[in-house]
Amino acid sequence: MMSHVAIVTDSTASIPEALIETLKIRWVPYYIHRGQEALRDLVTLPREAFYRWLPSAEELPQTASPGPGDYVELYERLAGEGVREIVSIHMTSKGSGAFQAATVAASTLREKLPELQIEVIDTLNVSMCQGWMVIEAARAAVEGQSLQEIVARVKEMIPVTTMIQTADTLKYLYMGGRIGRAKHLVGSLLRIRPLIGMEEGIIVPLGQARSRTKAYQMMVEMAEAAVGAGGKLKVAYVHAAAQEEAEKIREMLERRLNSVESLIAELSPALGVHTGPGTAGICFFPVLS
Question: What does each C-alpha distance from 27 to 7, 70, 146, 218 come to in angstroms?
Fold first, then answer.
């Protein structure tokens, strides 16, 4: 029987495959409806083909979070493998129904599998901010930490894990209705690079720059303000079909800040449909020890 805590998340966490495998993270794919096609994020819809197609889309595909049944299926499968404790970590409940669906699934199984304990967490974040919480939880599970210790670790990360990203256009966020409080930036001049982040689970504007380079400098300055000069951080450089841009941010940030762990992660199509190709940014949190 497996004694450790199982860590569950969704495809939107955008965690690099190598880490998913080594840390035995389980995940549920989002749905993407493209015309009459019902696709599963990262399962029947790989990143590369999707980002090649997206700029030519006449209308955006619709994304849908997994339903309670998708989580029930995975939780039951884990229980069948001998798992007795699960931490299920999801993107902001203010932007998606995944947290709600997982919560319903957990309560559905309470009577059927009373020995199974499931803690469902709303990260109030997205992308690799959610991803970092999953990674740190999975590492804690590998170390043999208890369910309570793992939940406490994730909850202390929620207020200090930060996303900052920019895109060539906010068209995709606007078309998909995911623009949050950054609506007024949509009509900006084409030459303006908007910076967006997330506060309390909602997309917010963080500023704007006249070039990508300037936008990246602003990102680095914001990260430095958040962790303090000489502070340490773990950072993911996230992008949608823009690895070179992610590398540029990495170069600029790591000249200024002490990154104790960094990785490059490409957004899953279920997120990329809202940001559009060309998006690049950072998801980071301060490391105190």
Answer: 8, 10, 20, 33
| Beta-bridge partners for 7 | 87
Length of the chain: 289
Domains in the chain, please, with CATH? Answer: 6-30+65-158 (3.40.50.10170), 161-287 (3.30.1180.10)
Cα(287)–Cα(178) distance, rounded to whole angstroms? 30
User: What is the per-residue pLDDT across 79-135, written as a single tens digit (0 to 9) for each?
Assistant: 999 999 999 999 999 989 999 999 999 999 998 999 999 999 999 999 999 999 999
Paired tokens of 147: 């369910």
pLDDT tens digits, one per residue of 155-166? 999 999 999 999
| CB-CB contact of 163 with 198 (8 Å) | yes
> Helix/strand/coil (H, E, C) string of 112-127?
HCCCCEEEEEECCCCH
- CA–chain centroid gap for 202, Å, is 13
258 and 230 Cβ atoms separated by less than 8 Å? yes
Using alpha carbons, select from 241, 235, 271, 256 the residue that is nearest to residue 129.
Answer: 235
> pTM here?
0.92
